[in-house]
Amino acid sequence: MKTKLASLIIILFICINAVAAQEPLNASTQEPATHNITIKIADTTAYAGKQGTLSFSINNDMPISSFQCDLSLPAGIRIAVNEDGKKLIQLNKERSIKNGHSCLHSTLSNGCTRIICFAMGGTTLIGNEGEVMTATVDIDKSVAAGKYTIELRNIEIVGPNESSHKISSAKATITIVAGTN
């Protein structure tokens, strides 16, 4: 099953990149010079030994058909899984699911989780701002109280005309509180 999923992800990634027409990037923001697209992880607070929720949003001035990114989490924090072993990454119903988007994910050799959101029919995300997905994370009891960095890397956003827009990274802070709630 893992091999089939990994193969599907690789094929999808190759197809997206093979047909993507690159637009010039603005060197100061690493965003396309002709579009204003931002992807953000909301800062959050969670308790050691408990679960927390990460919220991902995209603000865009153009239609978006698909996106991918690599999620890097600090040591002792990992994406939670359900009883079937599936990672708890969920698309937002209002922006993603209503138009038939799906989410695939795989763990990379560097420990990051690659997340790909797409619609087989090429439909676009609904709206131009707001949450697109969430991820539930488990925080080990051993994680010390403090502030930790969460990062999205290798972000690629694709429009319906197959134009590809790259954003180098997006960061947020997860504040871990000692004790239980």
Element pattern in H and E: HEEEEEEEEEEEEEE
Mean pLDDT, nearest integer?
A: 83
Question: How much beta, percentage-wise?
Answer: over 45%
Structural shape = globular
Structural class: mainly beta
Question: What gyration radius follows from the Cα positions, in whole Å?
Answer: 17 Å
From the N-terminal CA to the C-terminal CA, the straight-line distance is: 37 Å
Q: Major beta sheet, specifics?
A: 7 strands, mixed
State the low-pLDDT regions, or none: 10-33
Number of helices: 1
- What's the total number of strands? 14
Helix coverage percent: under 10%
Structure description:
This protein is mostly beta strands. Helix content is 10%, strand content 48%. Strand 13 and strand 14 form a beta hairpin. The chain is globular and about 50 Å long. The chain starts with a helix and ends with a strand. The relative contact order is 0.28. Mean pLDDT is 83; it is low at 10-33.
